[in-house]
Every structure is written in structure tokens, then in C-alpha cells.
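Example for tutorial group B:
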């Protein structure tokens, strides 16, 4: 019994020694961590965020020159983009358009009663805009088909209609598309009276609620429409338009060209 008691006492003492060693180890580790933090502590002055600042213009003349330089670069960019577009064409009806891409000029042309597949984007113009762009150089988007805008899964989708059929597309678009080639793109300036502000309900309408609202709010204004002729189908794939519809749609009344303000000129 005495031997067993001595064994238990020795085991207990060994456990106590282990616990003491662990406590000492933890204590030393904490002291080391504390000393390390003290050594790396950053003073409030050192922790202050320094924001680099550009030296302000020393004079009003320098600030004015910076603005003029920015305007010059913008005008040069707009001129470069304009040089890549075709000249503005004016039809007898006063409708104006310009070619963005001529397409396959060796192929067939769109003619009255051609069945056409088109993709398109419609824009509005800001106050003071002109034919190339709207203010700031960018037209304001309204609605489109075939380009995946507004998160739509419609890349490659087209609107199919018979060229010259009444009520399919805005009359301005029907007239401008005559003579287009496959893969050609034309930008047409649509006056309100040759667009959606007519008594006829057009088949070509926005397919989103947002697009419908935007068109309703701006259909009384001149609009820009980029029309891409994706495909010209063989005649007979759709019913042909009557001679009365062709005459009413493609032989519009002659009007003075609908003009927007000219682009601002550098002084």
C-alpha cells in the first residue's frame, strides 16, 4: 500500500510540473507578442494618410487653357469618327441619312417588296444636338434589337418585314433602306412626322417595358436609328405590299430637309 501511495504522489507531481511548464510557455509567448506589438506600434502622426494633391493652376489663364485643350481633343476625336462615315444624303422627301457601313456592294440591293431582316438601335438626341451625335458626342439609347442591350438575350435576332408594306417600320426607314446591301448599316435621322408620331400603329416597337416608356416620352422628337440589313430574302417568302401601299410608303411628300443645329465650331 505504501508503494502504491508513493506512485500516485509521483504521478500527481509530474502532472503539476507539466501544467506549470505549459503555463510558463504561454506566459513567455504572451510577453513576446506584447513586446513585438510595442516595437511595431505606429504613432498617430505616422499613421496619418497622406493624399497626394495636384498643384492647382497658378493662374486663371492656365485653367482656361486646360479646358480649351480638352475641347480640342474632343473635337479631334469626333472629326476622326466623322471621317469614317459616309456623307450626309438627303432624299426628295427631306429625309437625311448617312452610311456607316456599305456592306456587300457586289450583292443584291433592297428593292420595293424585298423581304428584309434587320437589326437596329434607336437613339434620341439631347437638346442642342446635331446629326452626328448628341451633346457630349454620344447618342442617348432608347431601344434596340439584335445586339444584346438591356441584358436581353437577343444577339442575332432580327425584325422581318416587306420593304414598302404600310405600317411595318417608320416611313423614313423604308425610304432610306432602298438600295442597301446585305450587312450594310445606315443611320437615318427620323423626323417625328415620318417616325412613330403618326396615326398608324407600327409593327416595329420596343420589346421591353423600359424601351416602350422611353419611346412614348420622346416620339415627338427627331430620333436617330441605325439600321443594319442582315439579310435580303427571296421575293415570295412574305406577302407582297399592294401598289397603293408602296406608293404611300415609298413616295413621300417632298419636304424641306429636317435639319438639326450645326455642330459647334471652334473659335
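The residue assignment follows.
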Amino acid at each position: 500500500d505504501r508503494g502504491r501511495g508513493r506512485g500516485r504522489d509521483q504521478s500527481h507531481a509530474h502532472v503539476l510540473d507539466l501544467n506549470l511548464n505549459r503555463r510558463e510557455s504561454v506566459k513567455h509567448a504572451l510577453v513576446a507578442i506584447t513586446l513585438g506589438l510595442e516595437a511595431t506600434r505606429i504613432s498617430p502622426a505616422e499613421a496619418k494618410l497622406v493624399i497626394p494633391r495636384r498643384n492647382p493652376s497658378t493662374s486663371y489663364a492656365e485653367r482656361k487653357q486646360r479646358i480649351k485643350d480638352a475641347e480640342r481633343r474632343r473635337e479631334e476625336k469626333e472629326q476622326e469618327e466623322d471621317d469614317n462615315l459616309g456623307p450626309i444624303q438627303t432624299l426628295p422627301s427631306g429625309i437625311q441619312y448617312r452610311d456607316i457601313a456599305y456592306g456587300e456592294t457586289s450583292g443584291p440591293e433592297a428593292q420595293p417588296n424585298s423581304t428584309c431582316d434587320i437589326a437596329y438601335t434607336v437613339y434620341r438626341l439631347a437638346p442642342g444636338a446635331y446629326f452626328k451625335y448628341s451633346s457630349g458626342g454620344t447618342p442617348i439609347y432608347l431601344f434596340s434589337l439584335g445586339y444584346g442591350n438591356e441584358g436581353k438575350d437577343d444577339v442575332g435576332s432580327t425584325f422581318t418585314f416587306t420593304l414598302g408594306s404600310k405600317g411595318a417600320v417608320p416611313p423614313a426607314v423604308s425610304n432610306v433602306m432602298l438600295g442597301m446591301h446585305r450587312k450594310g448599316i445606315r443611320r437615318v435621322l427620323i423626323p417625328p412626322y415620318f417616325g412613330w408620331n403618326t396615326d398608324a400603329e407600327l409593327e416595329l416597337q420596343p420589346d421591353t417595358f423600359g424601351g416602350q416608356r422611353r419611346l412614348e416620352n420622346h416620339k415627338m422628337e427627331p430620333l436617330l436609328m441605325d439600321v443594319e440589313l442582315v439579310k435580303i430574302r427571296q421575293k415570295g417568302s412574305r406577302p407582297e405590299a399592294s401598289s397603293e401601299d408602296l406608293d404611300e410608303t415609298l413616295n413621300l411628300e417632298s419636304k424641306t430637309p429636317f435639319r438639326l443645329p450645326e455642330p459647334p465650331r471652334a473659335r
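Strands lie at 89-90, 96-101, 115-124, 140-145, 159-162, 185-190, 223-233. Compare this with the pattern of hydrophobic and polar residues in the output above.
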